[in-house]
Amino acid sequence: MRRVLLSLVFCAGLLAVVPGHVQAQQESQAEAQETALLDRVGRWKIINTAIFAVLLGWFIAKKAPGFFQARSSDIQRAIQEATGLKLEADYRHSEIDRRMANLAGEVKKIRDEANAEMEREHGRMRHETETEIERIRHNALNEIEALRKEAADRVQLHTAQLALEQAERQLRERFARGEQAGLIDDFVRLVERSNN
Predict the structure, then answer these.
(1) DSSP readout, the chain?
(2) N or C: which end of the chain has fewer CB atoms below 10 A?
């Protein structure tokens, strides 16, 4: 490609030189002097233009492939990134569409799971409450039984104390009246009964 570009620039320079030379011969002698001066200047312009075109062609041939390759790779990279982004966006879009299609089912599933969880929690709390009520009832019954025994023991103790006090009072009254012989007989009978 570099050679083709250089040959095109060189041919353009030659074609520009030949018409200028042919034109100079056809003009008149008076104009020939004027033309000769102009022709020299024109030739230098053409030579300068040809040199510029050759240098420009060489510079383009030298730098253009690298520039276009870099630009092409940038474009390819941008296309790949855009393709990746498009595929990702399409995937997300399809996921969203799938979720939206299943949204009613998902909501129902979540509600069913929440209801099942509430039922389990309710059952667990009811069981814990029943267990706690049973424990409290059992403790209350034990406390009532303990209080009943304590009260019965107190009543018995109080009754025994009252009986002792009554017996003591009766004994004092008998001693005071002089019935000691009857007391001794009662005591002997009581001892005899306990031995039998």
Answers:
(1) -HHHHHHHHHHHHHHHHHHHHHHHHHS-HHHHHHHHHHHHHHHHHHHHHHHHHHHHHHHHHHHHHHHHHHHHHHHHHHHHHHHHHHHHHHHHHHHHHHHHHTHHHHHHHHHHHHHHHHHHHHHHHHHHHHHHHHHHHHHHHHHHHHHHHHHHHHHHHHHHHHHHHHHHHHHHHHHHHT-HHHHHHHHHHHHHHHH-
(2) C
